[in-house]
From TrEMBL:
The lineage of its organism: Eukaryota, Fungi, Dikarya, Ascomycota, Pezizomycotina. GO terms for molecular function: transferase activity. This is Metallo-beta-lactamase domain-containing protein. It comes from Friedmanniomyces endolithicus. Residues 97-207 form the Metallo-beta-lactamase domain. Signal peptide: none annotated.
Length: 379
């Protein structure tokens, strides 16, 4: 596999995520001491190195013009129907920039057609730019919007979109409780092709879009406490039975490599919160890892990314860390092992959970940037 191309910058638009925090048109320039973002759409971000726009005030400033004369001198209206909606799932529109060239791919498609369409329209997402779609794993909260994505992207002018899939598609997946609970089926290969996607099946690591991105193969399980999806099962039509499926072996992450950047000016000491004094304004960036659910373990995925990246340091980890229902000790161990890899930006979303986010901020103050639907990040 060819080496990753170094990207000059990376743009990420959060089309679907579990939480709503910052409305449309948010830009956070995440420098090497990126930090805790606001946990709601009103509070300002406390990190002086993070440039942020898109608060409710900004959305109102860019809102609809008032055409009547019944509101005094108000000229703009903040409309609630212009704000994105959260849902259990994930979809990230990712653009890598190298010189004057841009490559755009979609990482996962959210849980269902309606929520993807709603948020993409409200964000005015440039779906016509999509060249490839990567599905992190076969679970409906990541694959459910696939057919709508292909329909909308095609209508917006996208041509011959490759859809990168693991070949082992379960008939159904589910969770065992007192009895099996089935999830909806993922779109089939045939449905994806009929919708206009160019299906590509991969089980091994490979480069995509002129090696601006890399898709992993099966993630090695080396961390003793990362045991997969508790009570996970899959249904096999040929046997008519549900089978244990805790490892979710088809899960694959996406990775890219960012060039180093000039350090931002160091703020005057009086304006720097104490937590930032511990962070180095280094020029190096490095690997950016996108993980769908981290059923294989966010530490396992991060360690494997560093191995495949030939020692390039880990700069950022974005997506679901799958710690929402984890025991406190497992959360603490996971964050400690992530800390040992020295990432500078932790864009935690989807299934990470609020307890894990607070543990990240406790162990690595200033490095958490919560991911919310409607956010745009520039790294």
């Amino acid at each position: 596999m060819a080496a990753l191309v170094e990207l000059d910058s990376l743009e990420i638009l959060v089309v679907v995520d579990n939480e709503y925090g910052i409305p449309s048109y948010v830009t956070r320039k995440c420098t090497t001491n990126s930090s805790l973002g606001s946990l709601d759409p009103i509070s300002p971000c406390p990190n002086p190195a993070v440039q942020q726009s898109g608060s409710l005030k900004d959305l109102g400033i860019n809102g609809s013009s008032i055409t009547t004369n019944d509101r005094g001198d108000a000229k703009k209206e903040l409309r609630m129907d212009s704000i994105c909606c959260s849902a259990h799932g994930l979809s990230l529109l990712i653009t890598g920039v190298v010189g004057n060239k841009r490559h755009t791919m979609l990482f996962d498609t959210g849980p269902e057609n309606r929520i993807f369409e709603l948020n993409a329209q409200r964000l005015r997402a440039p779906l016509g730019d999509i060249e490839a779609i990567h599905l992190s794993h076969w679970h409906r909260d990541h694959s459910g919007g696939m057919l709508k994505v292909l329909e909308m992207a095609g209508a917006a002018g996208a041509k011959s979109i490759s859809v990168d899939l693991h070949p082992d598609r379960p008939d159904y997946r589910g969770i065992i409780a007192m009895a099996p609970i089935s999830m909806e089926a993922d779109p089939t290969f045939e449905e994806i092709e009929k919708a206009g996607g160019r299906v590509e099946k991969h089980g091994e690591a490979h480069g995509v879009l002129e090696n601006c991105f890399m898709v992993s193969g099966e993630i090695p399980r080396v961390t003793k406490y990362e045991l997969g999806l508790k009570r996970g099962i899959r249904f096999a039509k040929e046997t008519g039975k549900w089978e244990e499926d805790t490892l979710i072996k088809d899960e694959r992450y996406l990775m890219c490599k960012l060039k180093g950047a000039q350090s931002p000016p160091t703020p005057a000491p009086s304006t720097v919160p104490p937590v930032f004094d511990q962070l180095t304004l280094a020029t190096d960036k490095g690997l950016v890892l996108f993980t769908g659910c981290s059923h294989a373990g966010v530490v396992n995925a991060s360690r494997n990314a560093v191995d495949l990246g030939s020692g390039t340091p880990l700069y950022a980890v974005m997506g679901g860390y799958h710690l929402a229902d984890a025991e406190p000790e497992l959360i603490s161990d996971s964050v400690a092992d992530l800390k040992a890899l020295e990432p500078k930006v932790l864009l935690a979303g989807h299934c990470t959970g609020w307890r894990a986010k607070f543990e990240i901020e406790r162990q690595m103050p200033g490095r958490l940037v919560p991911s919310f639907v409607g956010s745009k990040f520039v790294l």
